[in-house]
Amino acid sequence: MATPFRQTANRPDHRTASGRLSLAPGELPFLLALAAVAIYGCVPETGQMRTIGFLVAGLFLIEVVTRLPSTPIVSVTATLIVLWSGLYGATGRGSAVVGAWFAFWPLVLVVLTALLFGPLRLAVRVVIGLIGGIAAIAVARTGGIEPTTAPALVAVAVAIPVSLAAAGGVVALSRRYGESANRR
Fold first, then answer.
1. Considering its fold, how many domains does the chain have in total?
2. Quick one: how far is CA 123 from the chain centroid?
């Protein structure tokens, strides 16, 4: 069974031979850093986030220096550790649990946009990741810090369509101006 994340050092569009999306070196750690910042926004009083920051920064440096994305087991392990940090910090507060899960929206948004619109350049995926990161941080700071779960769910319900529309707009603009730049 083919996995959606394979190493593609020689493929500039970061797609595997089977056409599945594969993240560029440093892209997953960047998206995990956005998730970690959103998690910290939900649970700023916990102490594990500094260690998580060092883990994500180290993974980013390794991927950028070697110019290869991490193996799937390393990627999954790093993702689960960042998720654990959010769920551990959110213990006892439902709104923070919602915020911790939604903190991974930058990664989901990048993958979902690539699946909906086809191959995307790395710069476009980074902008879409930033849009997802802003949405996740907004959810963390509005609903994720509330004492009840309902405000977090409302924040998620607003953030998803807004960020999807913004990501679609970025793709449309990149294709419009990318094509006109190629015609010159």
1. 1
2. 14
